[in-house]
Amino acid sequence: MKRSVLIIEDDLIVALALEDMLIEMGLEICDTVISEDDAVEAAIRHHPDIVVSDFHLKNGNGVSASLRIQSVMDVSVLFISGSRKEVEQRVPTAICIDKPFTLTSVERGLTAVLSACQARADPSVSGPHV
Predict the structure, then answer these.
(1) What DSSP assignment string belongs to the chain?
(2) Given a cut of 50, is residue 101 above it in pLDDT?
(3) Could you tell me the pLDDT band of residue 116, with boundaries at 50, 70 and 90?
(4) What band does 121 get if pLDDT is binned at 50, 70 and 90?
(5) What is the pLDDT of residues 23-68, one digit of tens each?
(6) Contacts 24+ apart (CB under 8 A), 33-37
(7) pTM to 2 decimals?
(8) How confident is the model at residue 125 (pLDDT cuts 50, 70, 90)?
(9) Cross-strand bridge partners of residue 76
(10) Considering just the CA atoms, what is the radius of gyration of the chain in Å?
């Protein structure tokens, strides 16, 4: 079964590049949204395995969206942002890669997110909730 990903990104070109990369990695895109409120609604509707989010959005921000989503479901988040320091100040345990990103950096970020997913699923493994 493919893992599903919700993309939260308000730049169309970046969103399309992420979709292509994630599909190439064998993931399924359940939705791509551009605002905080749309992200929460899409997460509730699709129950993604992973959220990939930018920080700055047209309406709201990715950190607030992710925290709202995590308040209603267990989901790991990979932030891809040009505002890495802002993300890490708000969520010190965040897994975040910088823009501009490469296929390799996205793969590394997703590996870290999936490791965090596995650690949460196995109580004998300790690790941060991201």
Answers:
(1) -PPEEEEE-S-HHHHHHHHHHHHHTT-EEEEEESBHHHHHHHHHHH--SEEEE-SB-SBSBHHHHHHHHHTTS--EEEEEES-HHHHHHH-TT-EEEESS--HHHHHHHHHHHHHHHHHHHSTTS-----
(2) yes
(3) confident
(4) low
(5) 999 999 999 999 999 999 999 999 999 999 999 998 999 999 999 9
(6) 33/6, 33/7, 33/8, 34/8, 34/9, 34/10, 34/58, 34/59, 35/10, 35/59, 35/60, 36/8, 36/60, 36/61, 36/62, 36/64, 36/65, 36/68
(7) 0.89
(8) very low
(9) 50
(10) 13
Could you tell me the two tokens for 65? 């969206």
Domains of the chain, start order = 4-121 (3.40.50.2300)
